């Protein structure tokens, strides 16, 4: 697989995403459904935003690894949140995870009225290899 990052500017680098990703000669594509802070028993978290972000990343990584992919295969990450202010106050958690894993992905963050039950954040993604 060939992955080319397109960034005509530099300002997005501080926010841990890129403007576009071109993928050529991919062997496979993984579309990941919305991952949230839900326990292995299917119970939605009622924790604060920061805790839910950590738990969401854990669940997200588990799905990626269970599929035989690696986090570096991430090319698109959509994030839904019920509280963009609280989300961005805790964005360092996501930035640290992206930086640690050397991930360069396109990304969109959307504030929504609600998510399932008590959930505050949800990740939906596309990965290629």
Explain what the structure shows.
With 129 residues, the chain is α+β, with helices and mostly antiparallel strands. The chain has helices at 49-66, 84-89, 91-100; strands at 2-6, 20-24, 29-35, 74-81, 106-111, 121-128. It is globular and about 40 Å long.
Mean pLDDT: 94
Give the tally of β-strands.
6
Estimate the strand proportion.
25-35%
SSE sequence, one letter per element: EEEHEHHEE
Regarding quaternary structure, what we see is single chain
Give the strand line-up of the largest sheet: 3-6-4-5
Number of helical elements: 3
Distance between the termini: 6 Å
Model regions low in confidence, pLDDT < 50 over at least 5 residues: none
| Largest beta-sheet details | 4 strands, mixed
Shape: globular
Rg (CA only): 15 Å
How are the elements arranged and paired?
Blueprint: E1 2-6, E2 20-24, E3 29-35, H1 49-66, E4 74-81, H2 84-89, H3 91-100, E5 106-111, E6 121-128
Keywords for this entry:
129 residues, alpha+beta, two-stranded antiparallel ribbon, 3 helices
Task: Give a summary of the structure in a few sentences.
The chain is α+β, with helices and mostly antiparallel strands and 129 residues long.
